[in-house]
Amino acid sequence: MGIVISLEPHRIKKEWLEEKKLLQNVQVKEIQATAEKVFVPVFKYFNFPYSFLEEACMDLALEAFLSGGKFSRYVENGALVFKFQVQAALEIGRISKELHEFMKSWVDDDPACESPEVKEAVESYIAFWWKRGLEAGTKRQLLRYH
Q: What is the CA radius of gyration of the chain?
């Protein structure tokens, strides 16, 4: 009679350690500065810095960063393998949509939320942090194998 063990706890622990190492490549002040640079110009009537909105931007920037870092295992010759590019675009789109929906639901007194500029700002912000995560993860992969 054999013993069945679940590998799930080991996978979760390995993923958590990988995320922890990736997060050493990013600073909170850098995320705050990027969020402020991107979103303050589009929210003219809303006090963005130090608000709940800034916190949401930081949370989703970290999520995008970690997502990019996880996709780094599919980088070959300095570029993301084609078959994973669609999945990456979908993930960036999902995170962007989540942030944009959050903004629309919480900042209803600012008509800017419905503007195309806000949506573009959100998409560029999330794509920026996703790419930073991809770069950090790729660098870690290269260091691991050399």
A: 18
28-57: pLDDT as tens digits: 999 999 998 998 888 776 677 778 888 899
Whole-number average pLDDT of the chain:
87
Distances from the Cα of 101 to the Cαs of 64, 95, 134, in angstroms?
Answer: 16, 10, 25
Looking at per-residue confidence, does 103 or 45 come out higher? 103
For residue 80, list its beta bridge partners.
75
- Burial-class residue 77 by CB neighbours within 10 Å (0-12, 13-18, 19+): exposed
Q: How far is CA 121 from CA 55, 75, 118, 132, 139, in A?
A: 16, 26, 5, 16, 27
Residue 8, domain member (yes or no):
no
What one-character DSSP code corresponds to residue 74?
A: G
Mean pLDDT within 13-23: 89
Number of domains in the chain: 1
